[in-house]
Design goal:
Elements (H helix, E strand, L loop, with lengths): L1 H18 L19 E5 L4 E6 L2 E7 L21 E9 L7 E4 L4 H9 L9 E3 L2 H6 L10 E2 L2 H10 L5 E5 L1
Parallel strand pairs: 1-8, 6-7
Antiparallel strand pairs: 1-2, 2-3, 4-5, 4-8, 5-6
Length: 171
């Protein structure tokens, strides 16, 4: 009987505390019910990224790249954005850059190339928002090799793109 009263009391306290909490913060993760994204295409020279369903462009975005945007990423810390075909590996809702999608760089070939120079290929390449740091930067191509869009655009991209989607990054 005492357990019953304790359970009722605990539920009542939980209800009181939840009523005092104020409104929930607005979620940065949107829903999406349109055509699936089957490929991402990045044109580094035009600073554009496109989400595609087959050959149909669903959305296009202006992008920022690594702080040394010309050429393929070869080594950790070179500030370059990779070129070639990769895949989206994961979704990170807790990114320091608002939201992010992991890119499968480095490939086995990227690692082999870097190792032949006794270097590391680097990693942790993402498509991400600007976040507090990016919003404080007043220049283009400020990332360490990632692809950046506005936070609002990243919310849309995050809702549309799932792990496994191929990403083609062209010079």
């Amino acid at each position: 009987m005492i357990r019953y009263f304790r359970a009722i009391f605990a539920l009542a306290m939980l209800a009181v505390l939840s009523a005092c909490g104020g409104p929930e913060p607005e979620s940065k993760i949107q829903g999406y019910d349109g055509a699936p994204v089957t490929q991402i295409f990045v044109d580094k020279s035009d600073r554009k990224m496109y989400l595609l369903n087959g050959k149909t462009i669903l959305r296009g975005y202006d992008i920022d790249l690594g702080n040394q945007p010309v050429g393929h990423k070869q080594f950790e810390g070179d500030g370059k954005t990779p070129e070639g075909m990769y895949f989206i590996t994961h979704r990170n809702p807790n990114s320091a850059y608002h939201l992010s999608l992991g890119v499968s760089y480095p490939s086995a070939a990227d690692m082999s190339h870097a190792m032949s120079f006794r270097q590391r290929a680097g990693g942790d390449i993402m498509i991400h928002g600007r976040g507090p740091y990016g919003n404080s930067v007043d220049k283009r191509d400020w990332t360490a090799g990632c692809i950046a869009v506005t936070d609002a655009e990243m919310e849309e991209i995050f809702a549309m793109v799932n792990p496994g989607v191929p990403i083609v990054i062209r010079p």
